[in-house]
Design goal:
This protein is mainly α. It has a domain of about 80 residues. Helices cover about 75% and strands about 0% of the residues. It is built from five helices and no strands. The longest helix is centred in the last third of the chain and has 60 residues. It starts with a helix and ends with a helix. About 5% of the residues are buried.
Length: about 160
């Protein structure tokens, strides 16, 4: 190969290499911060009830993650699950911190369930009292209708 062709080839290759990122719209890799990784694990524990309910958890996992981090809406369910697996396999978060997060999520779940039970009890009590009021109203209405019918019958010409 003569020097002119070789120089032209090198210039063209260098130009293509420099512009490839611009032309292909490639992006830089996302850097997962410690806070994001902890958020992923915390959300995972919440959604799976501390890893006891893994049925169809990826959709709920992704939805909750996007609610908390709307700027990362481009992250797919698969990528989010992959990142959780990377965190666990590569021990990006120490075991002690994961255990601490599990305890925090457990207490949060217990608080939410007690609030849920209390709200259900209050709803149940309200519905019982409403049922009792409705029953009393229905009895009074029936009584007044019976009286009206009886008076019509006794006073009819």
């Amino acid at each position: 190969m003569n020097k002119f062709i070789w120089r032209t080839y090198l210039i063209a290759t260098k130009f293509e290499t420099n512009t490839r990122g611009y032309l292909d719209f490639t992006e830089t890799r996302m850097c997962w911060s410690k806070e994001l990784n902890e958020s992923i694990m915390r959300i995972y524990f919440e959604v799976t009830d501390l890893e006891t309910n893994l049925t169809a958890h990826r959709i709920r996992f992704h939805t909750k993650f996007i609610e908390l981090h709307p700027h990362l809406a481009h992250i797919s369910e698969q990528r989010l699950s992959d990142q959780r697996r990377v965190i666990v396999n590569n021990k990006l978060i120490p075991e002690v911190r994961i255990a601490q997060m599990k305890q925090e999520v457990e207490s949060q779940i217990e608080n939410n369930s007690s609030v849920y039970v209390q709200s259900n009890d209050s709803l149940r009590n309200n519905s019982l009292s409403n049922d009792m009021i409705d029953a009393q109203t229905n009895d009074a209405t029936t009584f007044s209708q019976d009286t009206f019918t009886h008076s019509q019958i006794t006073h009819s010409p």
